[in-house]
Design brief:
With 259 residues, this protein is an alpha/beta fold. The chain has 11 helices and 11 strands. The strands form 2 sheets. The protein has a 7-stranded mixed β-sheet with strand order 1-2-3-4-6-8-11, sandwiched between helices. The longest helix has 19 residues. It starts with a strand and ends with a helix.
Length: 259
């Protein structure tokens, strides 16, 4: 059963394939305090949900996300260091909540992505973008740093590409983002929804506990060197999940050719 939960700046459709939609098209879905808090809240909910198997993150309007709202930025001009720390923590908490969500997050991007919006795309597990999309890490133009988004963008876009785009603030195309591995699937605009739903359906058909542990596995293993301790850890993980009820049921069904 699908239910819709009300928020001020986003829409949330709950279900096995859930949807979170940024809904500030009049300001290109730019971040303000409310939107950041709502994104944090909805993904905390999804993380603890027994219903959601995969979530689509998308946006209404011509842009996916333009980063920080200009009016919000104006209010921060005279902030003290302490106030800036508190404010920056709100964005950092939102990004980390999505990044660590146990449910896979698929970004459906059909409009431009700037500044903090690139960070939002980077914390998603799978990024599907239409060919018309443009990306820009624009903070240096304003004398700022993409500091809060940098851990995720560097992982997703790559160190060498970030050495360029952090300092140039150049606009780069969805095709370039695809070539760099930031975008997983490049589509025509009218085909984006079909491709996203195809990916989400594949995820939803897999064992939910295994999917969550696969996502955790990548986060845990990626930064580590291949050493005996790591090899032992991977052995322990596969042995442990083989004895789970979910794995036992699925393996027996597969071997017996039953559902």
């Amino acid at each position: 059963m699908t239910t819709t939960m009300p928020y001020k700046h986003l829409l949330f459709e709950n279900g096995a394939i859930a949807r979170v939609t940024l809904n500030r098209p009049e300001v290109r879905n730019a971040f303000n305090e409310t939107l950041l808090d709502e994104l944090t809240h909805v993904f905390e909910y999804i993380n603890n949900s027994d219903v959601c198997r995969v979530v689509i993150l998308q946006a209404n309007g011509k842009s996916f996300c333009a980063g920080a709202d200009l009016n919000w930025m104006k209010s921060m001009v005279d902030f003290s260091l302490e106030e800036n720390l508190k404010d920056s923590s709100r964005l950092a908490n939102m990004l980390n909540t999505i990044y660590k969500c146990s449910v896979p997050v698929v970004a459906k991007i059909e409009g431009d992505v700037y500044a903090g919006g690139v960070g939002l795309a980077a914390v998603c597990d799978i990024v599907v973008a239409s060919k018309n999309v443009r990306f820009c890490i624009s903070e240096a133009k304003l004398g700022l740093l993409p500091a809060t988004i940098s851990p995720y963008v560097i992982k997703a876009l790559g160190e060498q590409a970030c050495r360029r785009y952090f300092v140039t603030s150049e606009v780069f195309t969805a095709l370039k983002a695809f070539e760099l591995g930031f975008v997983h699937e490049l589509t025509e605009l009218e085909e984006t929804e079909t491709k996203v739903f195809e990916i989400c359906t594949a995820i939803a058909q897999n064992a939910p506990q295994a999917v969550a542990k696969c996502k955790q596995l990548v986060r845990d293993i990626a930064p580590l060197s291949i050493e005996p301790k790591l090899i032992d850890e991977t052995v322990n993980r596969i042995a442990s999940i083989r004895t789970s009820d979910e794995a036992q049921g699925r393996m027996k069904a597969f071997l017996n050719k039953t559902k």
